[in-house]
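Record now logged for everyone:
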Amino acid sequence: MRDVGMRRGGLSFMTGLPALLSAALLASLVFLWPPSPSPAAPSAASAYLGSEKCASCHQIQYKGWVKTFHSTVVGDAKKDPSVIMADLSDPELPFKKEEIHLTIGGHWDQRYLTKIDDDYYILPRLWSVQSKKWRPYSTYGWQKRPYSKYCVGCHSVGFDPRTRGISEHAVGCESCHGAGAAHAAKPGKGNIVNPKRLPGDRAEEICASCHVRGKDLSGEFFFPIGWKPGDDLSKSLVPLEKNEGESDRDAIHRLWDKWKSDRESQSRARCEVCGIHQNVKPQGQKISVDAICMSCHEYDEKKLLQHTRHKTPAGAGCSDCHEQKSNGVDEKKDENVHSYGYFLIHPQGCWDTEIQDRCAKCHADKPKKWAYDTVVSWKKPVVIDH
C-alpha cells in the first residue's frame, strides 16, 4: 500500500539530489503513528500538548478523564499485552496473538488491529466483553478498511491526513477542548474551547463529530477533516443517513439526538424494575439492596469475589461500595468525570461506580491516595451487563 501523502502530492516537482533528500524526509514523516504514537506534521503537532500536560494545571479534570473509556479507547498490545481482554485459545480464531498490534474498546466489545504494509486494519473477529464470546466482524471486507481512513480520526487527537501523524492516541482533553499549546503558554478563556461557553448546538456537535456516522467533504475519510471543537460540524461532515431534503446540519442533530436517546433508554430500562433511579427504596425486611442488584447482576460466588476484590462474600456488599449520586459535573470534587456515557453506566439516582471514597468505611487506617490508586490499578472491573 502506497502512502497517502506521496500518492496525493506526488514527487514530480523534485529533481536531483534535493529531490532524493526531500523524498527521504517525507517518507520519514509519513505514518509514524502507533503503536508508538508520534507527532503529526510539525505545524500541527506544535499546537497540541497531550492530556498528561493538561493535567499539570487541571488535575481534577484529568483524574476524572482517566476513569472514562475515552482515555483507554486504544491499547498498545505490543507494549502492554495485558490490554487484550479476549480468550485467544479458540483454535478456529483466524489470527494469532502476535498479529495483534492495537486494541479498540473494552467496555462492550473489543476489536483488534493488525498492521499490513503501512496501515492498520481491524481483524475479522471481535470479542464481546459482556458475553465473553467471539463474534464475526467485517469478515469478508476487513482488508479494504484501513484504520487511517475509517477510524483513527475519532480515536486520536490531532490527526493530520497529509502525514497520517497524530498527537495522542486517545480521546483526550484536546479532542473536546481543541489544541492547547497556546492556552498553556498564556492561559486565558479566549485560546481554549470550553463547551459550557458554546451555543448548545455547537457544544453537542463536539460529541456528534464522532458519534454520528459520516464522511468528510472529500468522501475519503469516515470522520470530519479540518473540523475543530466549536466549529460548524456540518461544514466538515456529511452524515451517512439523511432524509430526503434534509440538510447536513439537521441530519447531524437528528442522529445525535437519537444516539443520546437510545443510550439513555437502554440504561434506564435495566433499573426500572426496582425503581432505584427514582429514589424508591426497597420495602420489607426480607428485600435487601444486594438482592435488588443481583436481580440484574447475576454473579456466582467466584465472579462476585472477582468483582468485589475481597476474599469472602461477606467482605463487601453492593451498598458498601456503591452510593447514590447525582448526574452532573461537580467542580468542587477531587475528580471531575468528563464523559456523557459515564453517567449512563447507572442512571441518575442509581448506584455509581466511584467506590474509592467508600473504602475508608472499612479501611480507616489507609489514606485516600491508597484507595484511589487501588481502584485505578484494577483497570478492568469484572462486570456482567454494563
